[in-house]
Design brief:
Butyryl-CoA Dehydrogenase, subunit A, domain 3; three-stranded mixed beta sheet; Butyryl-Coa Dehydrogenase, subunit A, domain 1; alpha+beta; 11 helices; Butyryl-CoA Dehydrogenase, subunit A, domain 2
Amino acid sequence: MDFRFNEKRSALKEKIREFVEKEIPREHARELDKRDEFPHELIKKLSQQGFMRINIPEEYGGMGGDVIDTMIVYEEISRRLPVLSWAMGNIALYGNEIISLNGSREQKESYLPRLAKGEVMFSFAITEPNAGSDAANISTKAAYKDGYFWINGSKMFITGAGVADYTITFARTGESRYGGITSFIVDTKSEGYSARPIKKLGYHGSNTCEVIYDNVKVPPGNILGGESGLNKGWQQEMKLLNQERLVLSSCALGIGQAALEDAVEFAKENFRHRQSRDQYQSIQHRLVEMATELEAARQLAYYAAWKETQRIECVKETSMSKYFAAETAKKVVMQGINILGPYGPVMAHDMQRYLRDVLILSIGGGTTQIQKNIVAKTLGL
């Protein structure tokens, strides 16, 4: 099977790589990581270049691209500044994809054209302090009274919740574990909504927040999918999982590729003429192993993505891809740290940043252990 990119996708890859080289030189990426601020200016530039339109249907001002197109962009951005991919997710994933798949006609007409222009951002709030991997255990509630839903509760580790214009909020509206959850489009300017940023090891600038809902008022028309979407939040979430796993796989691939390239360059400059043949060969072999494992992860990810675009059942493959890409990227980065030796943890080198950023990819979007559980079920175990 031929997985080579066609002319359109090759041009897309070249365009986003040129953007990264021009707009995000290494020193700028390091400075953004140091400041730990949301990259508003780069999001604006990505929008101006049309990248936010990539996975929006053409009828709403988009390019009509699919998950493979999105992955190409995410992988290239993650080679230089992984947090920008997550920030882009506040439009391309949490906005474009969610509204396109689950929004009502009115919601698509209202939000998608603005998302295509980068005029609004969304965040996605499902995780709670006591409901992470077991997302169906959420306790945030939405009670109907006087013509409105009133949301009370809290969410944790919500990316972009403090900078987004809207937050897709999952709340319990019924007793059924899976059939009693509703997704609401919550205006973050609503009275009672507040978001507090959380300091963390990696992905500096992603604006990861704890969110509080204190009697937040939401009209029935803001149920995702319209009023017919009541108690269908879990089914809506299931539609998004394959895409989320694949996008996160591409983030891991980008970080792993950056670590490999830096390690190769370091080896050329420091080992080629300063080590014995046997010592240099040992370094070569480690780099070859890194490159091979990373390529295996890439082939799995894009194969799974191809199945998704062909509407072929691929829960097994996307779960495999998500955990394997994340774990492979971690392994590649750790090998990169070892090859750089005492320079690996030095802040003047990027390898330490790759390590800080890559760790979350084994957790976010479903932990490695959860992905293995899913694969086990597909194997009949």
